[in-house]
Amino acid sequence: MVRVTVWGENVHERNEPEVAERYPDGMHGAIAAGLTELLGDGVRTRTATLDQPEHGLPQDVIDATDVLTWWGHIAHDQVDDAVVRRVHDAVLGGMGLLVLHSGHYSKILQRLVGTTCSLKWRNEGERELVWTVNPAHPIAQGVPHPIVIPAQEMYGEHFDIPEPDELVFISSFAGGEVFRSGCCFQRGAGRIFYFSPGDQDYPVYYQPEIRRVLANAVQWAAPRTRGPVPEAPNAPRDWFL
What we know:
The chain is α/β, with parallel strands linked by helices and 241 residues long. It has seven helices and nine strands, in the order E-H-H-H-E-H-E-H-E-H-E-E-E-E-E-H.
């Protein structure tokens, strides 16, 4: 069983009635429900939000998490650096991390990949097509080609990230832009997947194809090993003999 913690900023849902109506259980609630729907007994989910003590991510929760999903947007600066360090160390030790939509600007992704993660954007409710460029990848299994999202915020290149270890999806938009929308990274022993669809103004996380991507990504990112941040001990000559 994969233990998943679904982290959501939960600011739009509390402050904007239209978002609360669209996501009555929060975006984090919709994401967690989709994982349970598709993975059943193969997953155990919990949710955590920014307003909770330690943002709902104390050390015991992190220790009991195989995969953490992260959605943030307008309160990145409010995330405590101590929590970021905790998550960072857990990823290096093997915990999986799914960073969603505007989480590209999160402290945790910027720290793990070492760049600004900036991009072009426009929110006019344009159609997005999510194209599979690596159909053999586990995250792409059972995913239609393309995924059609009727209305979504546009994200466009240049996307300031390192070259992904694996690129699974690219998106195209009605305005002509393209975007690397499904990117895999390895940091330490941990696997990271960034997936861009999911603006709060649209019901994207109810869409079956999007839920399939997230469920696949959770299974892909689940730890192969889990432990502390790898050390670099002194090694005297002939230590292995």
